[in-house]
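REVIEWER CHECKLIST
Item 1: Sequence provided? yes
Item 2: Single chain? yes
Item 3: Sequence as submitted:
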Amino acid sequence: MTGYNKRETKYPMPVQDPFERSRNFSEVALGYPEETARLEAARCIHCKNRPCVNGCPVAVPIPEFIGKIAEGEYEEAYQIISRASSLPAVCGRVCPQENQCEKYCTRGIKGEPVAIGRLERFAADRHFSRPHTAERPVSNGHKVAVVGSGPAGLACAGDLRRLGYEVTVFEALHAAGGVLVYGIPAFRLPKEIVAREVEELAALGVDFETDTVIGRLYSVEELKTELGFEAVFLGTGAGLPRFMGIKGENAKDVFSANEYLTRANLMKAYEEDAETPIFRAKRVAVVGGGNVAMDAARTAKRLGAEQVSVVYRRGKEELPARKEEVEHALEEGIGFKFLTNPVEILTDPDGNVCALRCAEMELGEADESGRRRPVMKPSSEFEFPADCVIMALGTSPNPLIRQTTAGLATKPRGEIAADEGGRTSLEGVFAGGDAVTGSATVILAMGAGKAAAKSIDEFLRGVVKKP
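Item 4: Structure as written out by the authors:
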């Protein structure tokens, strides 16, 4: 049984029935059928100033690829996208298009914007559904190391390989993809989608070395001096979780969303015969309001939780998560406790989580982010039962690289300091994505990876002065 996504659009996306999908890890959104894709593509009016392209962090030629879909030239549409994006099937699924390309679509001024993301997904899925061969670029003889196989690293590797560079991607985990495989659940981004994007890059000649921790097996300096890489890109992401520092946070049934999702996604702990354990709680509280909080809450539901509550200190209008993800969570029976902030995690005599003590909040003056600051109401504390608490409060970069790389400048919160081209304080060392910005979106990380690839190319060709 299927339904339709309620997001404002001329032609809705078919989705799994909420009751059915809340019990499985299959993809929620089912993709456009061919006829619908062509009808949606025909809505593009091909504006001369192309505002949608200006809203895309990687500058995909949007009107051009949409025009090819309208004509039924689906492979040509994919090739146009892939010249700008190394991960079209991924971006079509998880990019916040409503805040980027679609936000600036002229069609959206007096109606619904063109569903650019859904059309990108359609073109990519059509490409991968048919046999194809990638043409491997001729090597230019230069070697570049990419540390981290998340969206920043993959985008950088893809662009450099197309320019002829010999690229090796070093990944600490046993599978390539970074946050795309350990952070985003299969019901939102199937792992086979990420795998085939990685395979596409491998077919171009990108080498992948998994189970390789840079900063332990090799230092950044040793990549250059011992392994002969002429430049290094650091796309190590932001995998260090944040906590609130409240009483009871060290109880054994309190998880970071990072650990919880990694167990479920990368380690497939949801499978009956999985070797990786995961706590199948009955009453789950997820603290936070972003996409990661939605992912954790919806994963807990699929793992059998009878009651899942998202606890967020601001109101519904301030939720940073995509509206589509919030809509899906509500349809699946996820509850929300707005204007609520935890103050203590309560445990039973055996040390198990039994309840969450919270305080009611109200919105005061705007803070540095422009959002109204939540302020605790006096004498407003209350408790509600929970046997598991998941903290989805954001992440910071892992300190390993900065601790083992002498001379690498970092910011006060541990992010690598880099300019808009990804140049760091070390010659020949570049960085981008969440390792530089802190936790952000897939497409912004990809944009940083592409910018760094351009800088690396200029550096190795001597086009600009070496930093």
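Item 5: Key structural point noted by reviewer: The chain has a mean pLDDT of 94.
Item 6: Recommendation: ____
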